[in-house]
Amino acid sequence: MMQSLLVDNLKTYYFTNSGVVRAVDGVTFELKKGESLGLAGESGSGKSTLALSIMRILPSFAKIVSGRILLDSIDILSISEKDFNKSFRWKKISMIFQGAMNALDPVYNIRDQLYEILKYHNYKDRFEDRAKEVLEEVELESSVLNRYPHELSGGMKQRVVIASSLLLKPNLLIADEPTTALDVLVQAEIINLLKRLKREGMSIMLITHDLAIISEIAEKICIMYAGEIAEFGRAKDIYTKPMHPYTQALIKAIPRLRGEKKLSYIKGSQPNLIEPLEGCRFRDKCPYVMDVCKKTPPLIKSNDGYVRCWLYK
Length: 313
Ligand code: ATP
Ligand code: SF4
Fold this sequence. Notes:
Elements: E1 5-16, E2 19-31, E3 37-40, H1 47-55, E4 62-71, E5 74-75, H2 81-87, E6 93-96, H3 110-118, H4 127-137, H5 154-166, E7 172-176, H6 184-199, E8 203-207, H7 211-217, E9 220-225, E10 228-234, H8 235-240, H9 245-252, H10 254-257, H11 291-295, E11 300-302, E12 305-307
Parallel strand pairs: 3-8, 3-9, 6-7, 7-8
Antiparallel strand pairs: 1-2, 1-4, 4-5, 9-10, 10-12, 11-12
Bound molecules: adenosine-5'-triphosphate (ATP) and iron/sulfur cluster.
């Protein structure tokens, strides 16, 4: 079981032709032993970039410019790529990518797709046993190994994707929108599967625009807005007493959100991450904006977390 994850003032920027995109801009949160995290926020707030930073699989023009990521007290950003790949990536931390079920290669059967992952990790000899084991963990029959992606339903494909992320027995699983594009019943099955993995000891970092789903899995929640965490705290506090005006708007929107994709919760343009607003980044959308919000970025400690809002000073 994972002991702890600490992300400390992490900044990940994309260096593009139009400027430096500050996609993750000073993100801090901590997960203690056995805790799972829900990461929510509108499209473009930096959720996937945060996940890719933890996995260290960013595109070449992206850079982690500062901050630390400690997994069980080991700073995984200071390890060489070779060692990270040997001992951490897929082994300790694994990830289900957004849209992965639609990216399964149509010309290979499931056995080949799983083998492709294992062959780089000295598991070759025990492949067949491990593949069957992992399919059992996601409640698929071993005959699925002989099937091709087009022969599987959406839910089965997503289980294969989850199985492939479990092959090397990680203890932290990052799941980026794992239920998007599935119908409601299948969504519920996949959530139940993630819940079971969690019960069996896996820490899960669930990225979604759907706060209702997070409530089923996570003890902690990060609400992201414009590359920052607007609010971080215990799930039950955030559901019952959301503090940040953005979180309040998200919670209010829950019944509408189910199943909708890429929804922007608050009307108005997407925040500019090349030249973010000074002070509070939410201030052009906030009904409570005050003078101080225009000048100084807020960061206020809360019960077991923090909130970026001057209303709580
Ligand atoms: P979604 O829910 O749509 O996946 P997200 O919250 O995961 O959104 P990110 O994909 O991390 O957000 O994007 C954060 C910011 O970084 C956005 O402004 C986005 O435009 C920018 N960004 C993401 N990927 C790239 C990239 N490959 N090149 C340049 N900018 C990028
Ligand atoms: Fe609104 Fe000010 Fe709080 Fe920002 S700091 S969310 S502008 S009240």
